[in-house]
Amino acid sequence: MARINEDAQCERLSVRGIQADIEIWTIDVSYDTIVVIGLLMFFRRETALQLLTDIQEHVKPGGRAIVNVLIEGTTYLGMFDLDNYCLFGRTELDERFEGWNILESRYQTFLAPENTRKDFSTLIAEKPRRKTEENS
């Protein structure tokens, strides 16, 4: 994490890398952008959906969420604790970001070990601004 923060400082980027146990850490401030790549699928469904809700609640109005998850149809499950993972439905991210401005929604399939595949959904969405912010 130190390297990410050092590089960001050198490049004068407003980036803050955080390393935390996501099951017990709570997002304590709002951000312009929250990026969650390849994380939510490693939790039980209930936990993954709560994390997604927390992420959505902590993106500032006009800010963006970038989320990538494995989706149903994925046949490579060797990386999971079989009691502790969540595959999202193909259109589930789009549905869960209803009311947001979807900037990009993409589905991709990659070959994986043992003649299997990984099916991903990636979403970039902008949180709507509040009415008072739109008029200012």
User: Would you identify the regions where 5 or more consecutive residues have pLDDT less than 50?
Assistant: none
- Helical segment tally? 4
- Strand neighbour order, sheet with most strands: 1-2-4-3
Q: How many separate structural domains?
A: 1
Instruction: Please count the beta strands (DSSP E, at least 2 residues each).
Output: 4
Whole-number mean pLDDT: 91
User: Radius of gyration in whole Å, from Cα?
Assistant: 16 Å
Q: What class, by secondary structure content?
A: alpha+beta
Strand content: 25-35%
Helix-residue proportion: 10-25%
What does this structure look like?
The chain is of the alpha+beta class and 136 residues long. It has one domain: Rossmann fold (3-Layer(aba) Sandwich), CATH 3.40.50. The protein contains four helices and four strands; from the N terminus they run H-E-H-E-H-E-E-H. The chain has helices at 2-10, 45-57, 92-96, 131-134; strands spanning 31-37, 59-70, 101-112, 116-126. It has a four-stranded mixed sheet. It is globular, with a radius of gyration of 16 Å. The model has no long low-confidence stretch (mean pLDDT 91).
Task: Note the main attributes of this structure.
136 residues, alpha+beta, Rossmann fold, four-stranded mixed β-sheet, 4 helices
What is this entry, summarized?
The protein is α+β, with helices and mostly antiparallel strands and 136 residues long. The protein is 23% helix and 31% strand.
Set out the fold topology:
Elements: H1 2-10, E1 31-37, H2 45-57, E2 59-70, H3 92-96, E3 101-112, E4 116-126, H4 131-134
Parallel strand pairs: 1-2
Antiparallel strand pairs: 2-4, 3-4
